[in-house]
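hiii, so i know i said id send this last week but things got crazy w the move. better late than never?? heres the sequnce for the chain we talked about at the cafe, plus the structure i predicted for it. fair warning i was half asleep when i ran it
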Amino acid sequence: MVKNPLPDLKSYEFEDVAFDQLMQNRIYKILIVCSNYDYYMLEEDGRIDERIFNEYTALNLRYPPSFEHANSAKRAIIAMETQKIDLVITWLDIGNFKTIETSKKIKAAFPNVPIAAISHYSTQLREKLSKESSGVIDYVFHWNGNADIILAIIKLTEDRMNAEKDINEIGVKAILLVEDSLKFYSKYLPIFYKILLKQTRSFMSEGLNAHRTMMLMRGRPKILLATNYEEGLHLFKEYKNSLLGVISDVSYFRNGVRDAKAGFHFLEYVRSFKRYFPFLIQSSNSDNEKYALELKGKFLYKHTETLEEEIKNYINQYFSFGDFEFWDPKQKKVLATVKDLTAFQKALATVTPESIAYHAIRSEYSKWLKSRVLFPLADLFSKVEYHDFEDSEEARLYLISAIKAYRGFRARGIISKFNKNKYDVYLGFSRIGDGSLGGKGRGLAFIDSFLKRHKLRQHFEDVKISIPRTVVLSTEVFDEFIETHKLIGLVGKCNNDEEILQKFIEKKLPKWVVEDIKAFLKVTTCPIAIRSSSVLEDSHYQPFAGIFSTYMLPNTKIDKMLDMVCDAVKSVMASSFFENSKVYLNATSHTIEEGKMAVILQEVIGKQYEDVYYPNISGVARSINFYPIGNEKPNEGIANIALGLGEIIVGGGKTLRFSPYHSKKVLQLSSPGSTQRDTQQYFYGLDMNPDSYETSTSEAINKKKITIRRAEKHGSLKYVASTYDLQNNVIKPGVMHDGIRVITFDNVLKYNTFPLPEILKDLLRIGQREMRSPIEIEFAVKLDVPKGEPKEFSFLQIRPIVESNDNKTKIPDEFKNEESIIYSESALGNGKYDHIYDFVYVKPETFNSANTREIAVAVETINKKFREEEKQYILVGPGRWGSSDPWLGIPVIWPQISAAKIIVEAGLNDFRIDPSQGTHFFQNLTSFKVGYLTINPSIGDGFFDLDYLNNQEAVYEDTYLRHIQFKHPLHVIIEGKSNKAAIYKEGIKPKEKEVSLEQLIDDLPPDGFM
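okay and structure toks below
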């Protein structure tokens, strides 16, 4: 027998099931057409809608229908004209056929509304109806006084309405019933539906959250009813690839006449299609059993006392409902009984080879999965046959690997409800508690969702793109912790960060939360980042980027790690009440009660090298580039990458800047001198000694600053470094040569050992389109992986960059430098500002890089006065504002300069700077629409009239700062499209010119911006 190649599980893409597209046609309103007496009979001792409602509730069904009653054709048609009726049920009496005429009138007026008839009678009624109501009444049922038949009519009608799309397009499975006896199919159908709905409840455990569980219920198998041979054959041919099995009578109409062997003809046809296809013959004649068995079918005697029980047993066994039983044909016994996919996977690893082969030959694995609505995995198993494997052991390994791959796929893009008893390695994103996920949490969930929707996870060969394993403690945990320990009063009065932190650490997290955290730690095997996720963070308009705390913890013994994680969680919660957070809340008109905090527990991507742990690449990329160089375009985006943890990027340290579209042209690498001078000199790694972590207001408590030279011993430089040959003054790729190591990422950017530029192009393009806004993303890359394993790109965060589109203002063509205090051609922002009176600048004559920390304190003091007076100002200083390295600039954090509306980086003769902002700093600039200018007048880059400022009278002056308050507001223009800006001198107002429609159109953002 020819073997087919097995699908490669490394690249196989499971197709997600569109559960939300299932059951689009439902029965919401039912019109019962009968006499008042018959309606009373139908209701018996209770309202029919109440009985159906109770039936729906008992079976965990949603959308129970409501009922209307009409006692004549005229009233029925009026009711249908005034209301949307989805199903008509008529009551038929053997002596009164007015209802047939009524049905004809209804069908003529509303041909698309199905009509079902119920009656106490069956045989005589069937003959009469076949003559007089052909094509008018869709279904006829026998009434035995049990309201279950109403439920069956509703579900059967819904199944028929949705069959074509749900079965053929989406892959839902079905059972075909061929039976022409009103009495028997009226008896069978309620039984079938109860079995189906019980089966539905059994696979609800496969749903990873409440919404997913309800979606799975939509995928239950459908029932298709045929009453003659031709109808049955048509339905079989139409849906044969999706049928779980057939249940058929023996005697019914075939070719227009009753055929006593019709069921056997049908069975013979099915056997020609598939050898092991389940087919149950049920008959009133017990003599038919022998022939049914000869044709490899099963037999059921209709008049048995235990009919219902035997039907249940057959469906459960042969349609693979209920538990899966691993049968060993050699030992002739059941080896294992499993209820769900997790147990199924475990059993596959232990059962005998004979059992593996027995079920594989009969395609019973895929059949069981189909009945449990696990269609993607079932479809994969359906594509392979047992003879495609060398032996049972190869089949076993393939089945287990496929289940692992599917469980990983199933969890992606889903926020699963955390269950400490079921949590395992396959769940990527889970939530603890029912509150909000917070800003970062929402961003991560969104990333997980769009990676799956766009099939990006395995889009690049030998690369896995994903978010790290994540668990979010929702704001419910925060609320319970704060309320239980009555902390809101304390934090409202206390302004001492250390005191607030200590009070939080002293308190205990809720017991149920600690148990869930412990379950998470049992699964993870790497360091954990505990990150803030305030409900206010990373919002479109007022993102709190970098304001709240993030801690990283090394993995160690679980009890020790549990204590550290709990303390870190409480530290993150406490950070929402630290002084900087309160300042920021106040700046954005929020109260401390609004700063609710979710907390993210997330695996840290990277590898341990000696006593530290770090990724090979950390990075930030933006879809809009405010500083395009050479051939770069604003809409092509920009990225900054570094070796080690991302702290160096967030803090504005030296990193490598490149455009994903021009990755081989990097300004910093333009000469050997600039490569050595302007590239990364050190990096950060997580200290893997558990004792290095202690509760602190500082996030850097257990992060080590490591020199590039020391990293040589780690063996990690081979992925990211080149070598500077001092003798020949050249940069050589790799680290195989003697010389000074420089972090150039040449292996990645020039020699394409990892497709980072291509990945960033795709993620920035798709992310921007998804968010309808320019975006910023954070990521980390692990290149140092075992042979044969894919390299890892971890998508850590996505957030919008809020950008002004005010294109009405331009710097006039006749502009002269003398009109301005400052003119820049490296400006960030857009628009005009004409409300600022105050100008604060660092005095160049007293500036010294050694004093930048003191200058930061002085700036904070003056900034506080502006905040108290609710005024804004222009701030000018040398070097990089917000730098984590005090030798590169003034190391302020955002709350220390939060009242500044225009910020200027001014280079001095011996202190030249390049435009650069840390991630969080940049996010705050754009969110608050702060103008940001860079000038280096000493080399002709921009203009700064320092003499003009020195000649103005100062309202405040100290060793480092000078504050001038003008009588009239200064006019500031930032021309976003050209990156130019001018701060005009007092009394000079730029001329405004009319802007034509053509110019407005021309000034729209570049292609790809939105």
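btw Residues 538-546, 803-808, 997-1010 have pLDDT under 50 and may be disordered. thought thatd interest u
miss u guys!!
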